[in-house]
Amino acid sequence: MKNKSITIGNKVIQPGERITIGLPTPEFYSYASMYMPIHVIHGKKEGPCLVVCAAIHGDEMNGIAIIHKLLNLGLLKSIQGTLIAVPVINVYGLISLTRNLPDRRDLDGSFPGLEKGSFASRLAYHFTQEILSKASHCIDIHSAEPNQVMMPQVVTDMTCTESEKMARAFQTPIILNSKANRGLLWQNNPEYNVPTILYEAGEVLRTDEIAIRTGVQGIVRVMRSLNMLPLKAKNPKTFEPLLVRSSKWVRSPGSGICTPKKKLGAEVTEGDIIAEIYDPFGTDKKYQILAPLDGIIVEKNQLSLINEGDNIYRIAKTKEEIPSGFTDWNKTQNIEE
After folding, report:
1. Could you read off the pLDDT of 260-280 as tens digits, one per residue?
2. What pLDDT was estimated at residue 176?
């Protein structure tokens, strides 16, 4: 069936069109005009409308690179339905390389927003009304907190059938089953009921090739699973993700210089030595940090100077048996042209 036109801002997009829109956002106090970049590929045939967005936090670079590579894939010429790609939601934070908005609020926590609310709430409302209201599905891209690095993972509410389908199609090494907190973009808003997955990988202010490659390939896989792109003639090499129901941060018992003993993706057993903390003044005083549970290291602190109580590693616990060759999952990630 032929697709219908859609309107974003004051721009009407016809079936078969591919355009870029600068969506106006709230002005700075200096009256400087700001625009959110919106890329729309509107297929000729009717189908799902997938929103892929990044940089809700202005210091998260991986999502911007993922969307850039995605938009340059030739296979998008055969799209059925609509792709709305937003590489930078928080244009204010990108300019200053910060996570938050000019009002110091976190945009991710302000959705769906209020028309007459705070600065963050108004921007969230604007995005919800203009973009999310068009979506049938959504992929929201993030990186780890500052000074931390995260292995590629998908977070979603697996009780939502469509979200589970998207999460499994994406093919990250792990899927974290989690209920959304109020105000997060990926929360299933009752008004729009948009199945959403959160893709998290890498660290802020840096790009990571594995995180980018996994993200691009994952989005393409999701689009194929939604019949937005044709299926491959040959069955591609796949990796079965591990379902994680909980994770735990391991904190340092003392302060000093940290020497990590495990890498991201490493399988650990309760009691394993995963890091050591040394006295920076050269005495023999040190702390050994032991794994408190069996699991997989999915996030780690990048700082060498550690204070007592700081996070060192986040270990994910899974009830599933960890398959042999788990650390080779990234070999299945080859960007399609």
Report:
1. 999 998 999 999 999 999 988
2. 92
Residue 13, classed as helix, strand or coil, is: strand
Please name the residue that has the structure tokens 């959504």.
138
Token look-up 């700081």 returns: 310
Decide: 56 and 101 in contact? Cβ < 8 Å: no
Domain boundaries, the chain: 6-225, 246-332
Who's near 184: CB < 8 A, 6+ residues apart?
108, 109, 111
> What is the fold, at CATH topology level, of the domain defined by 6-225?
Aminopeptidase (3.40.630)
CATH code assigned to 246-332: 2.40.50.100
**What's the pLDDT tens digit per position in 23-50?**
999 887 888 889 999 999 999 999 999 9
CA-to-CA separations, 19 to 8, 38, 69, 75, in angstroms, rounded: 11, 8, 16, 17
3-class secondary structure, 127: helix
Q: What does the pLDDT read at residue 188?
A: 46
Question: 68: how many CB neighbours lie within 10 A of its CB?
Answer: 15
Rounded to two decimals, what is the model's pTM? 0.93
Chain centroid to CA 199:
3
